[in-house]
TrEMBL record:
It comes from marine sediment metagenome. The lineage of its organism: unclassified sequences, metagenomes, ecological metagenomes. Residues 1-137 form the ABC transmembrane type-1 domain. Signal peptide: none annotated. The chain crosses the membrane at residues 6-24, 59-79, 85-106, 118-140. GO terms for cellular component: membrane. Gene3D superfamilies: MetI-like (1.10.3720.10). This is ABC transmembrane type-1 domain-containing protein. CDD domains: TM_PBP2 (cd06261).
Length: 151
């Protein structure tokens, strides 16, 4: 009941993080499993390095770029999710967010009043922000991914 009466942006962010971490964990796990099968890890095993040293010196440095990319994608996804949650009326009750701005346009019935363009500023910011993050992940992937660099 307290969740319905007083929702803060922190509460909404925690709920988004709670429901989005399995996706990130699966992606990280698949990347680690892929790295585990690479030749440089086999060479480290053959040379007698411990599992801890292999993880810290071989796998972790190769994961940092991927973790950064996943964080950027998750940030864009979280903005879209917060906006969606706020538009349907379940977002934070305090402060202003892009989703709450869209919700106010709906609540004030701006479309019926002929002020449809009130949707444009928050919608454009959401689209530009998430689009910029997606382009940033593409550029970072091109720079840091050795498979893409060699092609």
């Amino acid at each position: 009941a307290s969740l319905l009466t007083g929702r803060s942006l922190v509460t909404v962010a925690m709920l988004i993080a709670l429901f989005s971490w399995p996706w990130m964990a699966r992606n990280m796990r698949s990347q680690v499993l892929s790295l585990r099968e690479r030749k440089f890890v086999d060479l480290a095993r053959i040379s007698g390095k411990s599992d801890f040293i292999i993880v810290v010196k071989e796998i972790l440095p190769n994961m940092l770029a991927y973790v950064f990319l996943v964080f950027i994608m998750a940030t864009g996804w979280a903005v879209v999710m917060e906006s969606s949650i706020s538009v349907i009326g379940l977002g934070p009750t305090t402060g202003f967010t892009l989703g709450k701005m869209l919700r106010l346009v709906i609540d004030w019935d701006m479309i019926r009043l002929g002020a449809w363009w009130y949707f444009i500023p928050p919608g454009l910011v959401i689209v530009m922000f998430t689009g910029t993050l997606m382009m940033l992940t593409s550029v970072i992937d091109d720079v840091l991914n050795p498979k893409v660099r060699t092609e």
